[in-house]
Amino acid sequence: MISEGVIELSRWQFAVTSLYHFLFVPLTIGLSFILAIMESTYLMTGREIYKDMTQFWGKLFGINFALGVTTGLTMEFQFGMNWSYFSHYVGDVFGAPLAIEGLMAFFMESTFVGLFFFGWDKLTKGQHLVVTWLVALGSNFSALWILVANGWMQNPVGAEFNFETMRMEVSSFEALIFNPAAQVKFVHTVAAGYTTASAFVLGISAYYMLKGRDAAFSQRSFTIAAGFGLAAVLSVIVLGDESGYTDGEVQKAKLAAIEAEWHTEEPPAAFTLVGLPDQEAMVTHHAIKIPWVLGLIGTRSIDTPIIGLSEILENNRVHIRNGMKAYGLLQELRSGKRDDELIEAFEKVKKDLGYGLLLKRYTENVVDATEEQIELAVKYSIPRVAPLFWTFRVMVASGFIMLIVFVVAVIASSIRKCRSEWVLKISLYSMPFPWIACETGWFVAEFGRQPWTIAEVLPTFLSASTLTEWDIILSLSGYIALYTVFLFIEMFLMMKYIKLGPSSLHKNRYHFELGGGDVS
Amino acid sequence: MIFDYETLRVIWWALLGALLIGFAVTGGFDLGVGVLLPFVGKNDDERRVILNAIGPTWEGNQVWFVTAGGALFAAWPMAYAVSFSGMYFALLLTLFAMFLRPLGFDYRSKLPSQKWRYNWDKALFVGGFIPALIFGVAFGNLLTGIPFQLENDLRIVYLGGFLDLLNPFALLSGMVSLSLFIMHGAVFLQIKTEGKVNQRAKKVGFIAIFLTLFLFALAGCWIYILDGYHITSEIFPNGPSNPLTKFVKRGPGLWLDNYGHFPELWVVPAAAFISGFIAMVLSRINRPGTAFIFSSITVTAVILTAGCSMFPFLIPSSISLNSSLTVWDSSSSQGTLNVLFWVTVIFIPLIVVYTSWVFHVLRGKITVEHIKKNNHTAY
């Protein structure tokens, strides 16, 4: 059995490296699209300023992209390095979208990104535009396949356990690819990326406008970002990830946890705006509730109930008892016994094998679990409510703040009178919110799936590699140290180029080159 | 169309090899150039020439490696799990070194400070040196076996330490891959540059080719006495992937078994030597373009030589022989291998086509004048 410390440290390492990676990914996904839009406008209007815009925002894109690539490598390595039992147990299914991502998306993105930067003089305008679009498509396809993989962790459809190989194997690729949980996740995540990039361009453009620099350049950038951003943030909110939470038992538990829905209520359920969730007593103290709203957003209907956590726990108790049987039968099969009756009996209960594995936390043999151990496993079978409840609310609040910002920005960009100083200031100072939403959103998705790495299939505590605590302390410190240094360097360069603005292109038509100060 | 399981397993063994070779042939010269950067480039302009020779294309080349990792995960999950967790610190070190590459390329020339740039040059050297070395160290460890054991539920237990990875044979393999990539990088630089940088690359290239062939020959002699592995029980090429159902023996010289049974395989190591010599000569008489083709063949043949001697083993276990992973018992399911095969058949040719187009667009020598003209956009 792997020690609790190794599991905790492995989880921390995964959380740190993936949240860090996700600081750069949304901007890459969104900004690549905005660059493609800007360059398309350049081709349609033939005006040089749009080329300058593509090149300048492209410079910032490059600074961000480098760290996205750097930290993405960690993700590809980490499953095998720190989650080797996971890799063995689900590689047949989970590995496939990752391999396809490489072949179909990452290759395209990385091969053409070089031409995007260095191909301006070597390609015709049309060719270069195609290259830019391929980079944008590549990064978006990349997101698609990664989220197909992640969606399967949330709602593992199209795969079956094989007792001969002791792992999950694909039974239907269609089901894997068209997993509703993955589809919703994809739309929600890329839209969040578009919102992030729009807020980035909007805020920086507002900064130039506040400084009274490069008016034509910054106003055009502001307008594109405002329009694209409003469309994006509306998609994020309307196509919220929550609509995918009706598929799969663990998704239902996640939904109940983020809403602190302790008990199933008459549909449509009320939405708890704020309150203090208490997991022991299974109540939310001082709750402020809005009738109907949760039922509407959670199920898109008025008569489908949202299953409460107490009912989920009841169901899980049944699953766990079934899982014990499945585990017992599996042991017989693994010891070499093969008769049709045994196989048939196992096939009947194997869907709950994962629940049986939950008991491994309390007893190595599973089949000899006592009533108390079963109760402990039942309690352990849902995520902790309070962290999910709060991060979810932070995410939603950040999303709505961005909605207001983009509405105001769209009005300001179409009506000159409304372009007052405070509009520009809120555009600038609201820049962190999309990042807060992305990070908290990722936390909700992953923490909400606990105690599983693969919902109902493989518990997190069984997934880790058999390393020692010191191994991971060493690697985790290494990651933190390097990532901190990288972040400082990146922010430093980013700030420098943001301050320089389009003057950094050395085209002799921007602020610092026209007597506004020094250019370096 | 669905192939039978045995065929698919062999195909995926070959495809994994193809992806690794794809990386070694393209990303390999980038790593070599990274190592050469501080030595072949004596001042900032020369170094920028070197960086820009590979700058626009290195990123795509590295994806061969990432994709090989993804394909290993998808087609050989157990091998992915064992190699990545077993060689934990070797992989971590490689990863940390590889971090320095995107940052080095992209950030180095964004500030004019000499100190800033020279520090990034050191980082890029490390980012080339360590992966180039570990590539071979990893292969060396595959040949000697990794100290792991599979439990009944197929959990992997690793029983070695970091220093076990640095055994003498693995270090020799590491030297082979290091000099191999330096050779390849030097020949590539010879194509893309002129003047002093070109001359220096030519000199280094000559030494590196010589060293590669010498070290490769040394490793070949070592194989005669090195313990190899052999399956002694009956093989079920269409059986389910359970590594615990076979018996394996170990003994000196067993890695030459395949060459004994199929003497025509000697063509592969022979190709490494012959094309290496041809590359040496062509580089000498200033025909780097053709020399590059032959150095690519050398790179390919060196990797194939190791693959041919190990087949059907992927990762032998040095402490629990029967836990060893082979082509017949550690692949993904037939369905997954089949779907991924078709995805690969469609996309690899496409990738080769567009990568070639990108290289074609960016053809031609990089000169100091070119750097000066594009002072603010070049790396």
Describe the structure.
The complex is a heterodimer of chains A (520) and B (379). Chain A is mainly α and 520 residues long. Chain A has a domain at 4-247 and 388-447 and 468-513. In chain A, 70% of the residues lie in helices and 6% in strands. Chain A has a two-stranded antiparallel ribbon. In chain A, a hairpin with a 4-residue loop joins strand 3 and strand 4 (283-290). Chain B has helices at residues 5-40, 44-54, 58-75, 77-86, 88-107, 114-144, 162-165, 168-192, 195-225, 257-261, 267-284, 288-310, 334-361, 368-373; strands spanning 148-150, 156-158, 227-231, 248-252, 313-315, 325-326. Chain B is built from 14 helices and six strands. In chain B, helix 1 (5-40) crosses helix 8, helix 1 (5-40) crosses helix 12 and helix 6 crosses helix 8. Chain B is globular, with a radius of gyration of 21 Å. Chain B has one domain. The chains are: A mainly alpha (520), B mainly alpha (379).
Can you lay out the helices and strands and say which pair or pack?
The complex is a heterodimer of chains A (520) and B (379).
Chain A: H1 4-45, H2 48-82, H3 84-118, H4 125-154, E1 159-162, E2 167-170, H5 173-177, H6 180-211, H7 215-238, H8 249-258, E3 271-278, E4 283-290, H9 293-299, H10 309-334, H11 340-349, H12 353-358, H13 371-380, H14 385-414, H15 421-429, H16 432-447, E5 452-454, E6 458-459, H17 460-463, H18 469-500
Antiparallel strand pairs in A: 1-2, 3-4, 5-6
Helix pairs in contact in A: 1-2, 1-4, 1-6, 1-16, 1-18, 2-3, 2-18, 3-4, 4-6, 6-7, 6-15, 6-16, 7-14, 10-11, 10-13, 14-15, 14-16
Chain B: H1 5-40, H2 44-54, H3 58-75, H4 77-86, H5 88-107, H6 114-144, E1 148-150, E2 156-158, H7 162-165, H8 168-192, H9 195-225, E3 227-231, E4 248-252, H10 257-261, H11 267-284, H12 288-310, E5 313-315, E6 325-326, H13 334-361, H14 368-373
Antiparallel strand pairs in B: 1-2, 3-4, 5-6
Helix pairs in contact in B: 1-2, 1-3, 1-6, 1-8, 1-12, 1-13, 3-4, 5-6, 6-8, 8-9, 8-12, 9-11, 11-12
